[in-house]
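Please check this one:

***
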Amino acid sequence: MGCPGGRRKKHASKKGSTHLAKQVKGKRRTKDHDQIHDDLKVEAAQELLNQQTDYDKTGEAQHYCLTCARYFQDEKTLKAHFRTKLHKRRLKALQTAPYSQAEAEAAAGMGSYHPPAKVDVQTQPLKTDTQRMDD
C-alpha cells in the first residue's frame, strides 16, 4: 500500500519521444484513398506505369503499384507484393467510392443520404503480361 507522497514510477519512454513519433508518422505517410482513386483513372494510371527512368526512386521508377502507391526494386518483388496481405487489404479498402462534398452535406442533414457505391478495383497487369498479350 503506497502513501500519497511515495515514489512514483518514471515513464522514460514518454518523456521526450513525442517529437520523434510525429516525424516518423509524416515520413511514412502514403497517399489517401481518394488520391489513389484519382491515380486509377486511365490517363493518370498510364502516366504512372510508364514513367521515365528516375535514378532517385526505388527500382528507377519502373516497377510501381498503383493501389499501394509504392515503388519496387524489380518485377519479381512487385509480383510478390501482389500476393501480400497489405496489397489485398488496400484493394478491399479501395472498393468503396471516395466521399464527395455532396455526400458529406447529405450526411450532415442537408439532403438525403445515399450509401457509397462499390467500385471494381483490380490489380494492375504487369508489363511482361501486356507484352505477351501483344505478341
Q: What stands out?
A: The mean pLDDT is 82. The beta strands are 64-65, 70-71. Residues 18-27 form the longest helix (10 residues).
